[in-house]
Amino acid sequence: MNSGTVKQPWHFIFLLILAGEAVFILPFVLARVFRPTVLDVFDLTNLELGTCFSIYGIVALVSYVFGGPLADRFPPRKLMATALILTALGGFVYAGNPSYTLLKILYGYWGFTTIFLFWAAMIKATRVWGGERSQGKAFGFLDGGRGLVGAGFASLGVLIFSIFIVGEISKAALADRTEAFQYVVWVSSGIVIFIGLLVWFFLKPKGDPRQLVLDKVSFQHINTVLRIPTVWLLMIIILSAYVGYKITDVFSLYAKEVMKYDEVDSAKVGTFLLYIRPVVGILIGFIADRSRTTLWLIIGFLLSILGALIFVSGIIEPNSTSLFFLSTLITATGIYAARALYFATMKEGKIPLALTGTAVGMISIVGYTPDIFAGPAMGYLLDNSPGELGHQHVFIMLAVFSFIGLLAAIQLYRRIKN
Asked: CB 3.0–4.6 Å: which of 215, 355, 408, 417 could bond 236 by disulfide?
């Protein structure tokens, strides 16, 4: 019996959700929530932090090529658990306040552990859980649940950080903030190791696992995947949506530099975004399974464009708190809706389940190139136009890529409909 048609247990998707966000906590979530602190603690400019992300992306690009077929050859459980534990070990280096050079090496290491061993395996396991009729729900749960896990990590991190800061946050010495951030990293690393062990022992799908694993992976499989038209459209859609997701990194910095929040309040803005993500992901997943997934992809890109243009307009002022949060909500809803659904179209796009890993690898080579260029681009825009102007330039970037994604999503909608 094919494991892709067997109803899978609920704990399976819960483990995927936990693991799917935990593996990215150290390289991305902490830097998103604590961006001003990270810049100070490691003595970085926005461009230098963006360069770390770029190195991650370059290593990840190579990892997608080889990691995709690997996910079709070995069980997801083993690949994902190994990735989690290796990623967490890098956290102990991160907590040691490494130099800029060592930080770049660390991000390259994380590009290998989180992508080569993990990414395609997670997407394939999610397709298995979704089965024939619940792909929207599966990927909506995955992305929304990951947002909830990320929000939980972020809230815990903010709590730990605030506990170890004595007196007012805005007046805390750099040494105190450095020590507080170290505790955040240590606790996060320990939790990631624990989740890795849970995945190793309990992420076992029902059905015949041999139906999901190829005896060998050949170039013919890659050629088969690249001849599917929806694969090419998904490359463009994911690239555009992922630029939007990367831009969510600057919201906490926007709160500090434009809205004049302190470090804890600006971190809370980053955490607020993470709580939007599960609501959007879960709701959009249920809705998509009852209509057309690609239609909601289109709506997601439209919302991203609208939110970006509000920020570009300059109407948000430091005392416009309600408008700031409304604009953030609109933008984040669009970004998270597109992110939750793009892989949910794989079944409609006639991509074979057994070749999911290979397809994800090929799609991701293009789709996740923002890991290489988005960080340095945002850093350049922010550093060369300090204050609100630099942020407006970043949101122009969001509007442009969202428009490109919109055009590709419309084309995908028409192709699947016909």
From this structure: 408
